């Protein structure tokens, strides 16, 4: 009986090892993710930082948004998910300005998803301050609050910081995920859901 038990434990150990090895080999550096030569400092060293680079006008980001929102809600306390708006040109910059204004007004919940819908479903490109002000007002934000915040020093500073962060990471295509200042995951990982699977794998490595 003792030998049978020992044999059973040995088999279970082998199965676990094979499973672990399969998981390790499932995602390959250089294929599913890239390791940065020079790590980027994260905001909180006690947590595993996961940054999502996006642009409201990006079709892929629009498709990715429901997945990333569901993923975010399931994360434990040690994972710090942050959104980073792309800052490349006038249209991405003014969209980033809208994102940071909504954040400063504590209104991302009312604005973020609807901004995507406004752009992609209603074909409203939200290309200048006037139409963005009207959109914010439709989200329940007063014109006074919008005008006080949209061109504020705090929002302008956030845009500068976003541009610097993109420069530090080097790879700037949307959507992209940056994991703990060390890894970059793009759609080359094999689709949007697999991007998140790779992120989970890398979070596990960092936690491990």
What is the radius of gyration computed over CA atoms, rounded to a whole number of angstroms? 21 Å
The CATH H-level homologous superfamily: Glutaredoxin
Q: Give the fraction of residues assigned to helices.
A: 55-70%
Give the topology string: H per helix, E per strand. HEEHEHHHHHEEH
What is the CATH fold-level name? Glutaredoxin
Q: How large is the count of helical segments?
A: 8
**Which structural class fits the helix and strand makeup?**
alpha+beta
Q: How many β-strand stretches?
A: 5
Low-confidence stretches: 1-23
Overall number of domains: 1
Mean pLDDT: 90
Named CATH architecture: 3-Layer(aba) Sandwich
Tell me the span between the first and last alpha carbons: 36 Å
Main sheet makeup: 5 strands, mixed
Shape: globular
The CATH C-level name is Alpha Beta
**Strand residue percentage:** 5-15%
Query: What strand order characterises the main sheet?
Result: 1-5-4-2-3
Describe this structure in words.
This protein is α+β, with helices and mostly antiparallel strands. It has a single domain (28-207), classed as Glutaredoxin (3-Layer(aba) Sandwich). It is 57% helix and 11% strand. The chain contains eight helices and five strands. It has helices at residues 2-26, 59-73, 90-104, 108-120, 129-138, 143-150, 153-169, 192-207; strands at residues 34-35, 48-54, 79-85, 176-179, 183-185. A five-stranded mixed sheet has the order 1-5-4-2-3. 31% of the residues are buried. Residues 1-23 have low confidence and may be disordered.
């Amino acid at each position: 009986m003792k030998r049978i038990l020992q044999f059973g434990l040995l088999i279970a150990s082998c199965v676990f090892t094979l499973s672990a090895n399969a998981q390790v080999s499932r995602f390959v550096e250089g294929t599913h993710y890239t390791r940065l030569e020079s790590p980027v400092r994260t905001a909180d060293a006690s947590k595993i930082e996961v940054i999502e680079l996006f642009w409201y006008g990006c079709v892929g980001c629009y498709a990715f948004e429901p997945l990333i929102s569901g993923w975010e809600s399931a994360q434990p306390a040690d994972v710090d998910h942050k959104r980073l708006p792309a800052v490349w040109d006038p249209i991405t910059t003014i969209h980033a300005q809208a994102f940071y204004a909504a954040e400063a007004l504590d209104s991302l919940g009312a604005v973020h998803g609807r901004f995507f819908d406004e752009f992609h479903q209603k074909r409203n490109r939200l290309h200048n301050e006037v139409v963005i002000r009207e959109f914010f007002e439709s989200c329940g934000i007063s014109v006074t609050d919008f005008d006080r915040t949209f061109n504020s020093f705090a929002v302008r500073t956030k845009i500068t910081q976003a541009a610097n962060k993109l420069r530090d990471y080097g790879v700037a295509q949307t959507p992209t995920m940056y994991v703990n200042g060390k890894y970059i995951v793009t759609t080359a990982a094999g689709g949007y859901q697999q991007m998140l699977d790779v992120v989970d794998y890398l979070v596990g490595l960092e936690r491990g």
